[in-house]
Write a structure and sequence with these properties.
By secondary structure, the protein is α+β, with helices and mostly antiparallel strands. It is built from five helices and 15 strands. It has two domains: 50 residues; 188 residues, no CATH class.
C-alpha cells in the first residue's frame, strides 16, 4: 500500500506568512507617513509663502500712514520721557469728541487757578470733580490737543484718563490719526523725580488701553480696530513722575465710525 503521507504536499509555513503580512503593513504605514509629511510641507509652503504675505499685505494696506513715523513716548516740559502712547483713534476731531462722550468719558478742564483749586478740594475733601484738569505732557513738540477722563469713586483722586494728540498726515480718506496715552490714576502724591504734587498711575497701562477701547466698542463707536507696535514690551518702564509701568508694548488703534460732521 502506498504511503499517503509521502504523497501529500508539505504544510504551509505560518511564520513566513506572518512575516509577509507584517512587512506589507509596515510599507502601508510608511507610505501613509510620507503622504502626511508631504501634506505638512504643502501646508507650510502655502501658509508661509501665500497666506501670511497676503494677510500682512492687507494689514499694511489698512494701517494709518501716520503710524509709520509716530513717536511712541510722550515727554514732560523738561523733555523727560513720560507715559507711553498705547492707543490711537482714526477720525475727525468732531468724531473723536462725540465718540468719547458717547462712551461716558468727559473732557478735562484746562489748568487754571480755579480748576486747580477745585481738584485740590475734590481730592482733599473727597468731593466729585468729573471734569478735573489733567497735567500736560508733550508729543510732536506740543502739549495734548484734547484730554478726557472717567471718574471712579467720589473724587478726582482715582480716574481713567487719556490725552490725545492729532498727527499731521491724514489717510487716503482724509481722516487724521489721534495718538493717546491711556492710564489710570490711583491717587495723589509727590513725584518720585521732581518732588511736585502729582497723580500716580497704576502700573498696568494695557488694562487702561483695553478699558478705553472696550468703552468705545460698547457704545457702538468703532468701525474696526487693530494692533500696532508701540513702545515695546517692558515690566519696568518709568514715566516722568517715576511711576513704574508694564506693557506688552502694543498700541490698539480704533477706527471711528464716520459721521456727517466735519472736524
Amino acid at each position: 500500500m502506498r504511503d499517503s503521507r509521502a504523497a501529500s504536499a508539505p504544510p504551509a509555513d505560518p511564520a513566513g506568512a506572518g512575516t509577509a503580512v507584517v512587512g506589507s503593513g509596515r510599507r502601508r504605514w510608511a507610505w501613509r507617513g510620507l503622504g502626511a509629511l508631504a501634506g505638512l510641507v504643502v501646508v507650510y509652503l502655502l501658509t508661509a509663502y501665500l497666506a501670511l504675505p497676503l494677510l500682512w499685505s492687507e494689514h499694511e494696506r489698512r494701517h494709518h500712514p501716520a503710524l509709520d513715523t509716530a513717536p511712541r513716548v510722550t515727554t514732560n516740559a523738561d523733555g523727560i520721557p513720560g507715559d507711553p502712547i498705547n492707543v490711537g483713534l482714526v477720525g475727525s476731531r468732531a468724531e473723536l469728541v462725540g465718540a468719547m462722550l458717547a462712551a461716558g468719558w468727559r473732557p478735562a478742564d484746562p489748568i487754571t487757578l480755579r480748576t486747580s483749586l477745585e481738584i485740590a478740594d475734590s481730592v482733599l475733601l473727597d468731593r466729585p470733580d468729573p471734569d478735573a484738569p489733567i497735567s500736560s505732557l508733550y508729543l510732536f513738540g506740543r502739549k495734548q490737543d484734547l484730554a478726557f477722563e472717567r471718574e471712579v469713586g467720589s473724587s478726582a483722586d482715582r480716574r481713567h484718563h487719556v490725552r490725545w494728540w492729532q498727527a499731521d498726515a491724514p489717510d487716503a480718506e482724509g481722516r487724521p490719526l489721534w495718538l493717546g496715552d491711556a492710564s489710570f490714576d490711583v491717587g495723589s502724591g509727590v513725584s518720585h523725580r521732581t518732588g511736585q504734587i502729582t497723580h500716580h498711575i497704576a502700573p498696568d497701562i494695557d488694562a487702561e488701553r483695553d478699558t478705553l477701547i472696550a468703552d468705545l466698542a460698547k457704545a457702538g463707536q468703532l468701525a474696526g480696530q487693530y494692533e500696532w507696535p508701540g513702545v515695546g514690551a517692558t515690566t519696568d518702564g518709568r514715566n516722568a513722575g517715576g511711576d513704574r509701568y508694564e506693557t506688552d508694548g502694543l498700541m490698539t488703534v480704533g477706527v471711528l465710525k464716520p459721521t456727517d460732521g466735519d472736524g
